[in-house]
Amino acid sequence: MAQLACRLAGSALVVLLAGCAAVGPDYVRPAMDIPPAYKEAGPWKTAAPQSVDSQHPWWQAYGDSVLNGLMVQANQANQNIAQAEAQYRQARALSDVTRAGLWPTLGVNAGVTRALTNSSSIKEGTYPSVGVGASWEPDLWGSVRRAVEAGNAGAQASADDLAAARLSIQSALAQDYLQLRVTDVLIRLYAVTAEAYTRALKLAQNQYAVGVALRSDVALAESQLKTAQAQGVDLQAQRSQLEHAIATLIGKSPAAFALPQAVGTMDQPGARVPTIPAGVPSGLLERRPDVAGAERRVAIANANIGVARAAYFPSLMLSASGGFSSAGFATLFDTPSRVWSLGAALAQTLFDGGLRKARSEQALAAYDVSVAQYKQTVLNSLQQVEDNLALLRVLDHEVVLQDQAVQASQLAERLALAQYQAGTATYLSVVTAQTLSLTNQRSAVQLRGRQLAASVALITATGGGWDTAPANGAPASTPPQAPIAAPNVANANPLTSETRKLTP
User: Fold this and answer.
1) What mean pLDDT do residues 125-144 have?
2) Which of 83, 152, 190, 253 could form a disulfide with 232 if both were Cys (CB 3.0 to 4.6 A apart)?
3) pLDDT tens string 246-255
4) How many domains does the chain have?
């Protein structure tokens, strides 16, 4: 009966200790003043709410099979992603370490002692022993529970960091690849321009040969040709650097990677900026991995406040052991050889020179730091979205105007050549028209490249991870095509994005 009463009392003590409330504030996500809609209009379509998924193939919206293949390689072999994945596994293990503090420690022991005793008579003998021991520090004030809470939030924050690292690499790869294809179009533009300048040089030479042109006309034509050829060669250096950057992003040595130059024609239609799904600004709080990670770090700091405050309260250590100890192996497991012990120790720090207070204040300050960082991350995210929306809106209008400038300058170039051939204009007017035409065509290509770069930045700013399949059910990935092309004289096809009303 006495043993039963002790067991019941022990069980009641365990339940009582387990039911103690954890000290420190319970976590509440910091409030943010989020606007109901974005200020800038954008190329939106309705977005279905989804959790963060940095492995979702948002890049398929650009319809380029080469880019799709490079993304697969980057997700598998990029070392920054591999590092973030290892850090995530480390964070999960640390969370398991803190959770182990909720449970008692159980161990076994066995030993043999050779000793000389001198109680009633001097006797030397061998004393074997075997036993089981257990100890447990009940989580009276929730210190371990708060530590587990912080560990879980840390693992979640590390998962968000992994998603952010993956999205960052994907964004950088898309930016570099699209810029490389823009460079390919520029290289093609200068190749076609050099061919046109070669014909103009022959015209000047013929005009000079028959005595209707000056030697300076030939020199001007030759200078114009060599300048265009030099600028075309310079683009090869830019392309090589972009190719090296892509190789690094997909986990390869630049020497072991080559990306064939896209074969494009000047009359190919330009690729369209994809219509980007998005919701109201508050969706960023759940979708962007860096915002989610910053919010989880606020939860870590909040839990650490409870850990620091728990140090003000006493700690209780319970221990129990049992086993057998005898003067010989023959009688080791006999009833008289049985030994056991139960113990409890209560400890309270009375003076620590302000250590606990300092740690508590440190935890409060760390919480304030994490809240400020979280709010700033949200504000930066909103700014990035607004910046790229504004940039895309302005570029849409600028591309239309630039294409009109291209058509006008190319018409002026053709007229100047015809007038020179007829002898009614100097070759200087031809050079001026040619320079203006090339400058406008290059600007048109670069504007389209800026549009594609801004669209990638907008996808990154809004968190990515959405379904890129069109509404009609057609596959998101279309057959390979040049991501961008220079405008055509007869039928300019500006790279414009469809503007739709933002729908929550």
Assistant:
1) 85
2) 190
3) 999 999 999 9
4) 1
